[in-house]
Amino acid sequence: MSDLRPLLEDITDRIYREADWGQPAQYIRELAEVDPSQFAICVCTEDGRMISAGLAERRFSIQSVSKVFALMATLGRIGGQLWSRVGREPSGTSFDSVVLLESERGRPRNPFVNAGALVTTDALLSGREPKLALAEVLSLVRAAAEDDDIHMNAKVAKSEERTGSRNKALAHYLASFGNLINPPEMTLGTYFHQCAIEMTTSQLARAGRCLAGFEGAPSVVSTLNVRRVNALMMTCGHYDGSGDFAFQVGLPGKSGVGGGILIIAPKVASIAIWSPGLNDYGNSKAGTRAAALLSQATGWSVF
Ligand code: DON
Fold first, then answer.
1. For the domain that residue 236 is a member of, what is the CATH number?
2. Catalytic residue among 86, 141, 202, 239
3. Quick check: 156 and 172 in contact, CB under 8 A?
């Protein structure tokens, strides 16, 4: 696509004109304080180009987008053993829901709902010190982005530790079914820190190249796991909004309550979008809109 730059600038202008931002996540203080009227988009293409528009060099909290990287690290470490503890089905429930866990005996539906991400992080710990598991996730992200200037914001992690009652409830409930190996507080602390990784929109798009099947891009997991992670992003990456995201955008995506979305157009592009205001599903409102505009204009849907 030669005219990607004007398209991204057009989309950015339109998003600012529409000014339909939604509200930033309120339950993590640092996120609640972020100005919602901000937008960035960055696209890395198969031929090595990187094109961006808006505030693509501003850092934001990647939150649940980190679940993709933690999942890749865990699959690399323990492989398919993870699936005895976590499913691969969409949940149809919100990201922090507890409802299915009782009837499904503590086996979360997928690795992207919070319960499933907690089990995934618990598996990644495998009896190690949290700082070792966190270093593993961070090095995977840095290797994928080919950029060492990516860090965790300990203040954001601590802040969520203070207010994250829902996640604490989920972790203890999982433990009651024997589906946490480590003490709940240890798994929670690791998970909160993983979610507190900060990246710019450009860095996130670059990191996503490892999932786009580009020749020459950093390879951090096997080709089989690339396919599987993309499948999970498509079916579960936006929680109970996953069907709608597939309908509007037609590409695998993973959202975070910091307003980031990582989107993969297999063999074509890795796309990152950021806008901190959220829709009713807890996914970026303007970001989802921009993803739909991009997919319509480029025809990059997988369908
Ligand atoms: O666990 C939480 O609630 C946050 N650290 C992450 C949730 C999140 O990003 C949901 N995605 N849209």
1. 3.40.710.10
2. 239
3. no
pLDDT reported for residue 192: 98
Confidence of residue 3 (pLDDT cuts 50, 70, 90): confident
Residues 263 and 224 in one domain: yes
Cα–Cα distances in angstroms (integers) from residue 107 to residues 65, 88, 99, 115, 245, in the given order: 21, 10, 12, 8, 25
pTM higher than the cut 0.90: yes
CB of 186 closer than 8 Å to CB of 131: no
Nearest CA to ligand 1 atom 7: 64
Separation of 197 CA from ligand 1 center, angstroms?
Answer: 12
* Cα separation values, 225 from 72, 139, 202, 300, 303, Å: 8, 18, 24, 22, 21
**217 with 198: CB under 8 angstroms?**
no
27 among known catalytic residues = no
Residue 117 Cα: closest atom of ligand 1: 1
| Same domain, residue pair 293 and 224 | yes
CA distance 176 to 210: 36
pLDDT at 109 over 70: yes
